[in-house]
Amino acid sequence: MQTVLVTGATGFIGSHLLRYLLQHHFQVIALSRKMHISNHVNLQWIDSLTALENISLDYVVNLAGESIGQGRWTAARKQKLIQSRVDTTKKLYQALTQYQIKPKCIISGSAIGYYGVDFTEQWLNVCDESSSPQAIFMSELCQKWEAEALSDPLQNTKIMRLGVVFGKNGGILPQMLLPIKLNLVGRIGSGRQPMTWVHIDDVIQAILFLFQSASDQKIYNVVAPDHIDQMQFVNVASKVFKRKPFLPLPSFVMKLLMGEQSQLVLNGQYVQPKALLNEGFKFQYADLDSALRQIIHS
């Protein structure tokens, strides 16, 4: 039985990952700021990295971090978002060094926000793992997080740059679908802005795939190969729900409501999972229609 440490274990991705690992007979150590009662023989909750002393780990999945979508990006909020990722990651690697733990592989989270946004709004460029970052907050947040995760050359760390993760029971998808389900808002802004997404099941399978990867590649975009824009998302979701939302939401309204954070909705980049595809990874949900139908109807 192989042992996996999961930080950020109570988050949307972490909770789905825990369920999968336990169903497939892994021993799981879950880090959370709040202690939980374990009802599973193969699950141990810890609230401090000091609990790792005398424990052997096969793999680590580092998902810890405050939700980026909750609350306006004030200066204090930005600092909290950075600290929740960078500080936890730093302490994780310090604990691994202190207790002489060297897992076979560490998967550390990041996001496609690393590539920033296309301010020209032409959206002709498609980013891959070699594309450059930008001097804007969401990109700098990812850069700092990744730099900390890759700071220990003795550990086999792989970075997972995630798109918007779609799945049941959490995440941002229910909020995105609600105005469509109510037959209200459809297009947001121009509607042409890229929407780069991935199904939660493919995220979990990508993690398991990277556990076994012998490649020297460090960075992986974990996104569906399907390139859609916001209006295409609305059209597919409307078809699934059999709705025809008619109200547009102008860009200036989003900017007034969300400030700088509106970049998450109004801007973006197309991103391709080049490294995963080159290594032979197969997406179970490569197109939006199949992904939404599975989530909504399952």
Automatic annotation (TrEMBL):
<dbReference type="InterPro" id="IPR001509">
    <property type="entry name" value="Epimerase_deHydtase"/>
</dbReference>
<dbReference type="InterPro" id="IPR036291">
    <property type="entry name" value="NAD(P)-bd_dom_sf"/>
</dbReference>
<comment type="similarity">
    <text>Belongs to the NAD(P)-dependent epimerase/dehydratase family. SDR39U1 subfamily.</text>
</comment>
<feature type="domain" description="NAD-dependent epimerase/dehydratase">
    <location>
        <begin position="4"/>
        <end position="222"/>
    </location>
</feature>
<protein>
    <submittedName>
        <fullName>TIGR01777 family oxidoreductase</fullName>
    </submittedName>
</protein>
<dbReference type="InterPro" id="IPR013549">
    <property type="entry name" value="DUF1731"/>
</dbReference>
<dbReference type="InterPro" id="IPR010099">
    <property type="entry name" value="SDR39U1"/>
</dbReference>
<dbReference type="Pfam" id="PF01370">
    <property type="entry name" value="Epimerase"/>
</dbReference>
<feature type="domain" description="DUF1731">
    <location>
        <begin position="249"/>
        <end position="295"/>
    </location>
</feature>
<dbReference type="Pfam" id="PF08338">
    <property type="entry name" value="DUF1731"/>
</dbReference>
